[in-house]
Every structure is written in structure tokens, then in C-alpha cells.
Specification:
alpha+beta; FAD/NAD(P)-binding domain; Alpha-Beta Plaits; Glutaredoxin; globular; binds flavin-adenine dinucleotide
Length: 487
């Protein structure tokens, strides 16, 4: 039986990102993926939010993606555009980039890292014991692994087999989406009626139309057909505009569910296998990639024996609230799309608020993921928040904070006069003396006082903040990066 330190079920955005993080840390990780190629059928994510671009930047990968996408200085909540050009991030824009391109670029990167991918087969089951997990594949082979991560999407077999509950809310509405050609000029733009909001947009080739149609009744099971699209168009517009030659037709609903736990001993869940919600706000892929960023370095340290496996529990503690909040904002989003007079009145009020500066910044920071705050206790506002990508001056010249994270190594950045002795962690934690004279500004919070030192985790979140003293530093180093090495 072949063995790997980590087996990842599913090579979508989350699984690919996680595999990259593990490979970077030198962990033997393999992906099992049902699809025979990275080709993606149907329409999925259309872009990346700021924090996702930032985490890619932390690995030196942002440019790869940015060069193939289209930046926009705004996002939207319901029908209100939210300008984000004034958010304090180098990447204060959204990047239009279709999920198939995102996956292609990431898969090429994984290929360069030599991650083995068992393509064209399913994980069909697994059994975990004290020391590992036996994973059964649909081609009859088995893999032995220390940890199995379910990145296998909303229908996750890993989640179901582990018996992890998936509580939440059933669908109240479904939408048909399709790329079609039409014999006549369709009614471009949005249309509101008593059923909901519908839209027809022109695709880049100027020939095909992209339709999103609210359905009269909730449909969630059957795979939709051109006939469904035609009938729904006729129900809304009185004509189907001669719809023909669909490139893809699919359906999504507003079902919102989240795994009760992201970990059952040696089995973990990430991405859609851990949380599903409607695509409003375009957050699903983004939070899956960020789940992977949070889990990757922790799992690597546990697999390498640097940290106890209790470190993995912090993955659930930190990431579960993030997806729970996305479930709430997408549910709110769906509620605002209702077309009864009371819901429309509420939507008008929400739009009024979102046009004001402060609410706009808050909502934009939430959807972009820039305001994520892991609860690491009381202290300086930076604690548990993303480290800003400052321009530092160091003994080796100028460098950006994010470039210090390219190898996924934690870093203690010392801005003070006194240096630090972290020799027992020197094999795991970089120490950089730096100068920075600019302002410290965090999304939503604004200016914060300059710390004298910060301990930054490989995922870019601040694990400890120094304020003239070193109090708590050794505890933070031990908690996050394992016991001190014995001299
Ligand atoms: C219409 C629509 C629009 C969307 N728009 C956006 C958007 O604008 N922005 C955004 O961020 N998100 C958006 N999303 C959500 C986004 O597509 C998902 O959140 C994202 O794909 C999740 O990635 P994942 O890797 O967790 O899961 P998936 O992409 O579902 O990948 C799971 C992978 O696992 C494989 N697999 C499944 N079961 C097995 C098995 N048993 N064994 C082996 N392999 C298996 C599958 O083949 C697949 O490759 C949208 C979704 C939809 C439906």
C-alpha cells in the first residue's frame, strides 16, 4: 500500500492550495481527484478578493494570477457598489478571474512542486485508527496516510463518512445560470418581478449571453436543461429570445450549511466540504483558499513532529467563525433580493447605509476578507489580525513584509533597538531587525500604535505583539511553533 503523510481528497481550489502549502513545507502530500484533468464544467467563481490576492502574494504567486485577470476597484453588496480603492492593502481591488483559470494556474504551480495527483479516481471510503488513515480509491487501490483532508466540495464524502454533522438552512430559492446563444437580441440587463431579480449579460465574445434567472419554485435536484432555461425565460420575458446552443447550464440555491466540526481526529475538512452558501458576494472559493492557508502550515508542523496535534484544533477555532459570518452575509444578501414591498424597503435602507463611508468600508473589509480577526486574546489591535505588507528597511536592503513569508516560515520582526534571543527556535523562526517609519493602518480600525516587534505566522497573521517588553513571546513561540530545541 502506498503511503503519504497527507492525502487530500479533491483537487479543486482548496485542495490545490493546501497541497502547495504542504509541499512548500517539505511534507509528502498527495491529491486524489475525480476529474481526469483540471478542466471545469459549468460556471463557478468569477474572481478573487483582496485577502486571497494577499495570501497568494505572501507566497510570491500574486503576479501570476494578477497578470491573467482584470482588476476592478469595486465590489458590490446586493445592488450597491462598494468602492474599495481606499482600503489599506496593496491589493485594494477585486480581480476578475474565472475559476477555471484560477485552478489552471494553481495546478501548474502544484505540478512544479511535484505534488503527486491520483487523477480520474474517487476516494470511496476510509477507516482511521490511532496511527493513521486507510483511504480506499475507486480504482481498487488503497493509500495509507497520517492525515486525510476532505477538500471534496459541498457533497463531501469525507464529511459524510466521518459522520460530521452539516447543520444549516435548506434552500428557499434556486437560480438557473447558463451561457447561451440567442436568435434575437435579448433584453440585456436586470429585470425585477414578483419572483425575484433576473439578469442577462453579454459575454466577452459579444455573441453569447450569460443568464441568471430566479426560478418560480425551488429546484435543487435535477440537472437543468436548455428546455428549463427556455421555459424560465418565457415565464419572465414572454419569450426565450430563440435560446440555443448552450455552453453550460447549471443551478445554484441559497442553501447554507456548515460542518459542526472541521476536525475528527485524523480527518479534517476545508473549503466547500466544510461550508456551503449561495455565491452572492463571490466568497466561497476565497474562503476555501484561506482555509487552506490556515491549515497548511499547522498540518505541516504536526506531520513533521514540530507541534502536537492539538495545534490542529486551532484550525477549527479560527476558521469556523469566518465561514459562519459568510453564511450570515450571504443569507442577508438573499433576503435583500426578495421583491415584496417590505423587503424592497429594507434593501433601500441598507443601500442608503452602504453609501456612507464607514458602513461601506466595514462591509467591503468583511467581504474582501481583510478584516479577519482570529481571537488570540486581549492585547494590541494587531494581535490575531493580518500583518500589513509594510515596506521595511533591513540590513539586506528594502523589502516587503510579504516577501519574508515566501517560504512559509514564521518571522519575528524587531523594530526596536534591543534585539531578541530566539536561538531555541532558530531552525524554525526567522528573526529580522527592521526599520519602518510609516503609519500603521488596519482595515476598519484605522491607525494603530506602532509595535516594537511582531511575531508573524506563516499564514500572515500576527501571533504576538511586542510593546517594549518581551512578555509572552516565549509562550507564543512555543504555542505556535513547538517546544524550544534542546541545545
Ligand atoms: C454559480 C456559482 C458561482 C460562484 N461564484 C463564486 C465567486 O464569484 N467567488 C467565489 O469565491 N466563489 C464562488 N463560487 C463558489 C466556488 O465555486 C466554490 O466555493 C469553490 O469551488 C470551492 O472550492 P473547493 O476546492 O472547496 O471545492 P470544489 O471546487 O467543489 O472542488 C472539489 C473537488 O473535489 C473533487 N471530488 C469530489 N468528490 C471527490 C471524491 N470522493 N474523490 C476525489 N475527488 C473528489 C471534485 O472533482 C472537485 O475537483 C461559486 C459557485 C457557484 C456554483
Amino acid at each position: 500500500m502506498k503511503s503519504h503523510a497527507v492525502v487530500i481528497a479533491g483537487g479543486g481550489p482548496t485542495g490545490l492550495m493546501l497541497a502547495g502549502e504542504l509541499a512548500l513545507a517539505g511534507v509528502d502530500a498527495a491529491i486524489v481527484e475525480r476529474r481526469t484533468s483540471q478542466e471545469l464544467v459549468g460556471m463557478r467563481a468569477k474572481g478573487l478578493h483582496s485577502r486571497t490576492i494577499e495570501v497568494l502574494d505572501q507566497r510570491g504567486l500574486a503576479e501570476l494570477f494578477v497578470s491573467q485577470g482584470q482588476p476592478h476597484d469595486a465590489m458590490s453588496f446586493h445592488e450597491t457598489p462598494l468602492k474599495i480603492g481606499d482600503l489599506p492593502s496593496r491589493h485594494n481591488y477585486t480581480l476578475a478571474l474565472q475559476q477555471n483559470h484560477f485552478e489552471r494556474i494553481l495546478a501548474e504551480h502544484i505540478c512544479e512542486l511535484d505534488v503527486p495527483i491520483y487523477r480520474g479516481c474517487d476516494v470511496t471510503g476510509f477507516v482511521q485508527d490511532e496511527t493513521g488513515v486507510d483511504v480506499a480509491l475507486s480504482d481498487g487501490r488503497s493509500l495509507r496516510t497520517e492525515y486525510l483532508v476532505g477538500c471534496d466540495g459541498g457533497q463531501s464524502l469525507i464529511r459524510k463518512t466521518a459522520g460530521i454533522e452539516f447543520p444549516g438552512w435548506d434552500a428557499t430559492t434556486s437560480w438557473l445560470i447558463a451561457e447561451i446563444q440567442t436568435a434575437e437580441e435579448p433584453a440585456w440587463g436586470f429585470r425585477h418581478d414578483t419572483v425575484g431579480i433576473h439578469g442577462i449579460g453579454k459575454l466577452d465574445d459579444g455573441r453569447r449571453a450569460f443568464v441568471v434567472l430566479t426560478e418560480r419554485q425551488v429546484e435543487s435536484t435535477a440537472a437543468p436543461t436548455l428546455r428549463d432555461v427556455s421555459e424560465t425565460l418565457i415565464g419572465i420575458y414572454g419569450t426565450d429570445f430563440g435560446a440555443h446552443s448552450p455552453d453550460c447550464i447549471s443551478r445554484f440555491t441559497d442553501m447554507a450549511r456548515q460542518a459542526a466540526t472541521y476536525r475528527d481526529r485524523r480527518v479534517l475538512l476545508a473549503g466547500d466540504s466544510a461550508h456551503v452558501h449561495p455565491p452572492m458576494g463571490g466568497q466561497g472559493l476565497n474562503i476555501g483558499v484561506q482555509d487552506a492557508m490556515n491549515l497548511g502550515w499547522k498540518l505541516a508542523q504536526v506531520a513533521k513532529g514540530i507541534s502536537p496535534d492539538s495545534l490542529l484544533d486551532t484550525y477549527h477555532t479560527e476558521r469556523h467563525p469566518v465561514a459562519a459570518r459568510v453564511l450570515r452575509n450571504t443569507m442577508a444578501h438573499v433576503a435583500l433580493r426578495r421583491q415584496d414591498e417590505r423587503s424592497k424597503a429594507l434593501a433601500d435602507y441598507v443601500a442608503q447605509f452602504l453609501r456612507m463611508d464607514e458602513p461601506r468600508k466595514r462591509m467591503a473589509a468583511e467581504i474582501s476578507g481583510l478584516d479577519v480577526h482570529y481571537n488570540l486574546g486581549e492585547g494590541h489591535p494587531l494581535l490575531g489580525r493580518r500583518m500589513p505588507d509594510l515596506d521595511l528597511v533591513t540590513a539586506n536592503g528594502s523589502m516587503r513584509v510579504f516577501s519574508l513569508l515566501h517560504d512559509a516560515q514564521p518571522v519575528l520582526i524587531n523594530f526596536g533597538e534591543r534585539s531578541f534571543d530566539i536561538a531555541p527556535w532558530a531552525d524554525r523562526v526567522q528573526l529580522v531587525d527592521a526599520k519602518y517609519s510609516g503609519a500603521w493602518e488596519l482595515p476598519v480600525l484605522g491607525a494603530v500604535t506602532a509595535p516594537t516587534a511582531v511575531l508573524v505566522r506563516p499564514d500572515g497573521y500576527v501571533a504576538w505583539v511586542g510593546d517594549l517588553t518581551q512578555e509572552g513571546l516565549l509562550d507564543a513561540l512555543t504555542m505556535w511553533f513547538g517546544a524550544p530545541a534542546v541545545a
